[in-house]
Design brief:
This protein is mainly alpha-helical. The chain has one domain. Helix content is 63%, strand content 2%. Helix 1 packs antiparallel against helix 7 and helix 11 runs parallel beside helix 13. The radius of gyration is 22 Å and the shape is globular. The two termini are 28 Å apart.
């Protein structure tokens, strides 16, 4: 007998489908950073055997073979998009693929940033990854007992009014890192609700995938491990915690093996010549939180509003709140002590992207006794977030860096602290002038014609509409009520303990 999916699972599927389609519609189809190129070249190496070209994010291993310094999992995630780009190249007219891929960018030492359908396809990777992040956020909020309506609203706000949206078009590893961290948190919550060795092993697998995406994310493991130990309960605590820790440890161990294979040393990651660590973190802290170039709150306004709800989060969900604060705090302390805290070529704050969906758990609890004030504040935060994400999606970041002289600034990039030179100002100016517009759909309409653009946009529009339909009607299709509340994890755990 086929098991009917739960209403929440059906809604999450609709969310993922709708968000992925919208992100794909808004994508650029090309890269703007050498980090993206490095990930793409590793995918290309595995699929077609083409060697990786040297750049400042590569490191030579034994025998002089060049490798990128990133984790391996992003390049694996890019395989479907890479192959999809190849397929479109075979199916579509040459004039269409040329417009979608855009002109050949870069070509320095064989490094291309655009002009290939393989690149256009791989650049879609974070479209589905971010769609999955939004779906998991909804499921996590529902597992905490938050009503379906509030959880769905929070997920949609995260999807289109925070940096998740602007970063859905790049091939950075932070989207997949966000998925791994959120997946680990959700899986640990599920393991707490229904404790078993298998459930804790699944949570450990999420944690291992998180580290294989970005080794830096290992700083979140202490918080995840502490929660796993506490959530395991008195009965079979050792076995359950060991299942989580044992599987999670595969992440660092496999990454060390990856380092040994690439560079001949377990601990050599290739980053050592790039940056250094120090305890002079005041400037970096200000930059991450309040600067006009990297502020987490300016580039994701709903996150700032969500902080008002955090006292209630800690009152209702203390364990989960402490888990989130521990994981987010680990990432924050890591990057404020790193000389490369600014993230160089990116829009807004990429290093703290994994904290965005987790911190949004406070949004449903903002101003609970003042519905009008809450609606007004939420409307302002959403409007500001939509404007910021539009600036990030619409304009090609690399063109801005060159045209506005960003590349001439030495680290730590003083333009991050000057409002008139910030990306908010320069992207707005470029958008107003129609300069460096990035969406592949605009290029297709301009170079080939509106008919071609409509032809390729229609399947994505239909997919988005289908996703919205599933979101709205999913509970009825799955046999659930439209807005039923769920018991939080702790309540379900206590109820089973008394039965």
């Amino acid at each position: 007998m086929i098991r009917r999916p739960s209403p929440d699972a059906t809604t999450a599927l609709g969310l993922a489908l709708a968000c992925t389609a919208v992100y794909a519609l808004c994508g650029g189809g090309r890269f703007f950073s050498v980090d993206e190129v490095g990930a793409f070249q590793l995918t290309r190496l595995w699929l077609e055997g083409e060697p990786i070209a040297s750049s400042h994010v590569t490191w030579a291993g034994p025998g002089g073979r060049v490798w990128n310094v990133q984790g391996p999992l992003l390049s694996v995630a890019a395989v479907p998009g890479y192959l999809f780009g190849r397929l479109l190249e075979l199916l579509l007219p040459a004039s269409w693929t040329a417009a979608i891929a855009g002109p050949a960018l870069g070509n320095i030492r064989g490094v291309l940033w655009g002009g290939e359908m393989r690149i256009a396809g791989a650049s879609l990777t974070n479209s589905w990854v971010t769609g999955a992040v939004v779906a998991l956020l909804f499921l996590w909020l529902r597992s905490l007992g938050i009503t379906r309506r509030a959880a769905l609203l929070t997920a949609v706000v995260a999807a289109f009014a925070t940096l998740l949206c602007a970063h859905s078009k790049n091939l950075f590893s932070h989207g997949l890192e966000t998925l791994g961290l959120l997946g680990a948190v959700l899986a640990l919550g599920a393991a707490r609700a229904r404790p078993s060795v298998r459930a804790f092993a699944v949570a450990g697998a999420w944690a291992a995938a998180l580290v294989l995406t970005r080794a830096q994310a290992a700083v979140t493991l202490p918080a995840l491990g502490a929660y796993a130990w506490w959530a395991a309960g008195a009965e079979r605590r050792i076995a359950r915690a060991a299942a989580f820790a044992g599987v999670a440890a595969l992440g660092p161990l496999l990454f060390a093996a990856w380092n040994l294979y690439r560079f001949g040393a377990l601990t050599e990651m290739g980053y050592s010549p790039l940056y250094h660590f120090s305890f002079n973190f005041l400037e970096a802290s200000y930059g991450h939180l309040f600067s006009v170039g990297r502020s987490l709150f300016i580039y994701s306004p709903p996150v700032a509003l969500a902080l008002l709800g955090w006292p209630e989060v800690l009152r209702r969900h203390r364990a989960e709140g402490l888990l989130v604060l521990g994981a987010c705090g680990g990432l924050f302390l890591l990057y404020v002590s790193w000389s490369g805290w600014h993230g160089a070529w990116c829009f807004g704050n990429r290093f703290l992207l994994p904290t965005v969906p987790l911190l949004l758990v406070g949004l449903p609890y903002v101003l609970p006794g003042h519905p009008r004030a809450r609606a007004c504040a939420l409307g302002v935060a959403i409007a500001a977030g939509l404007v910021v994400q539009t600036l990030g999606l619409a304009v090609h970041i690399a063109f801005i860096h060159h045209a506005y002289g960003y590349a001439e600034h030495p680290a730590p990039l003083p333009y991050l602290f000057v409002p008139s030179q910030s990306q908010l100002a320069t992207h707005a100016d470029a958008l107003w002038r129609g300069y460096a517009l990035d969406p592949w759909l605009l290029r297709l309409a301009s170079d080939v014609g509106p008919g071609a653009a409509l032809t390729l946009a229609l399947p994505l529009v239909l997919a988005a509409a289908a996703g919205v339909m599933v979101m709205c009607r999913g509970p009825r299709w799955a046999g659930g009520r439209a807005d039923e509340a769920r018991e939080p994890v702790a309540a379900r755990r206590r109820r089973r303990g008394h039965s």
